[in-house]
């Protein structure tokens, strides 16, 4: 009876369990995660934690020594994972001192290098479109400047023609004035001679 009571008085300890992960078990990711975080039901002991990533063929892709922060265990990936299916195997020491282990499955759809190349290609297309737009604007400005130049040339031509017409008119006026001057002098001379003859005959008559 005493032995049975002693057994009942011994506290029962439960091992800690994994309650969540980032990425979550079964997640499909567009590209490789930078890190994998495992969260447990209690603080994990900092005693030889380990995370191993295995591909679908069973080959080990990476062995990571994670960091422990209370219930969180974080494994930083030195290199991005290529496209494929992976199993994240973990082993830590529970807060009760017992080692526990498990796994999380994830899928990576695209290589990080391919995504970077696609992003660079999209950026190049936008730059080319922007360059074409700028070139179009420059052509419009050049066309506008050409039009202004043509208008200025037309104005200059009109002014030149007007000046030439004014010069021709002045020249014609001068020529008309020059041609009428001898005629006027001749009329004046006749009048003067006629007056002298009239005066001469008037004097003879008085004599």
Comma- or semicolon-separated keywords:
Immunoglobulin-like; four-stranded antiparallel sheet; 2 helices; 207 residues; alpha+beta
The gist of it:
The protein is α+β, with helices and mostly antiparallel strands and 207 residues long.
Mean pLDDT across every amino acid position: 75
CATH architectural group of the domain at 15-112: Sandwich
How are the strands of the largest sheet arranged? Answer: 2-9-8-4-5
Number of helices: 2
Please give the CATH class of the domain at 15-112: Mainly Beta
The CATH topology assignment of the domain at 15-112 is: Immunoglobulin-like
Rg computed from alpha carbons, rounded to a whole number of angstroms: 56 Å
Model regions low in confidence, pLDDT < 50 over at least 5 residues: 1-11, 151-155, 157-163
Fraction in helix? 40-55%
The description of the largest β-sheet is: 5 strands, mixed
Summing up helix and strand content along with how strands pair, one would put the structural category as alpha+beta
Report on the architecture of this protein.
- The chain has helices at residues 2-9, 112-206, and strands at 18-22, 27-29, 35-40, 45-55, 60-64, 67-69, 72-76, 84-93, 99-108.
- Helices cover 50% and strands 28% of the residues.
- A 5-stranded mixed sheet has the order 2-9-8-4-5, with no helix packed on it.
- The protein contains 2 helices and 9 strands, in the order H-E-E-E-E-E-E-E-E-E-H.
- The chain has a domain at 15-112: Immunoglobulin-like.
- With 207 residues, it is an alpha+beta fold.
- The longest helix has 95 residues, at 112-206.
